[in-house]
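=== RUN LOG ===
request id: a7f3
mode: sequence -> structure
chains: 1
length: 68
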Amino acid sequence: MTLTLNEYGHSDETYEKSGGRWRVETSIAIRLREDVATPLFSIHVSEHIGNAGTGFARKSAGRPSGKA
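=== RESULT ===
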């Protein structure tokens, strides 16, 4: 069975000119919505469930949570 994750949002980026070339200095992805779809059904993933899943995945991978 095929599982599809569709994410909707935007990014916030800042650029810096260095050595005559523009480079991305910072890039932040802002997720507004996630939908999980299969050929049989489609569901909207709430922000709370999405955040919990992201936190779990980062802990499992040994990465910081991203919280200040």
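=== NOTES ===
DSSP finds one helix and three strands in the chain.
The helical segments are 47-61.
=== END ===
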